[in-house]
């Protein structure tokens, strides 16, 4: 039996391509695959997609470090109403990297906890980016003097 794993699948409500470009710049994301609804070998069922969604992203995958995240514009329904109840946690190898990424991700978004020292990390902060995605940015445990 192969090993199971969990993979985040993010729905951007019509802004997926913009989000992918933002994450490329902000965190060095590498887009591995992108398929538009118009590229699908089978058309969407009638009434499934809003008008104009043909050029939107049906499915994409992008890599951040060793993690692969899946993404889509969704179908314009409930999945497009934002991200609730979770955050993506991003551990970086150096404090300067954490500061740079935190600043980049928070551009156009909002900081919920400034980047700083906590009892569990010498460098940790939380934010919501301009797409409403929650992020927790931290120094990787192997690089953190508090975990040495």
TrEMBL record:
InterPro entries: Glyas_Bleomycin-R_OHBP_Dase, PhnB-like. Residues 6-137 form the PhnB-like domain. SUPFAM superfamilies: Glyoxalase/Bleomycin resistance protein/Dihydroxybiphenyl dioxygenase (SSF54593). Pfam families: 3-dmu-9_3-mt (PF06983). This is PhnB protein.
């Amino acid at each position: 039996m192969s090993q199971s794993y969990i993979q985040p699948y993010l729905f951007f409500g019509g802004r997926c391509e913009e989000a992918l470009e933002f994450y490329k710049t902000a965190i060095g994301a590498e887009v591995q695959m992108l398929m538009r609804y118009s590229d699908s070998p089978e058309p969407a069922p009638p009434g499934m997609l809003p008008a104009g969604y043909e050029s939107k992203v049906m499915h994409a995958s992008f890599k951040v470090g060793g993690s692969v995240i899946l993404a889509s514009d969704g179908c314009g329904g409930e999945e497009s109403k934002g991200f609730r109840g979770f955050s993506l946690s991003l551990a970086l190898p150096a404090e300067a990297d954490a500061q740079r990424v935190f600043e980049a991700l928070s551009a156009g978004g909002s900081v919920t906890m400034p980047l700083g020292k906590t009892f569990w990390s010498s460098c940790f902060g939380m934010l919501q980016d301009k797409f409403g995605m929650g992020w927790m940015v931290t120094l990787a445990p192997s690089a953190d003097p508090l975990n040495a």
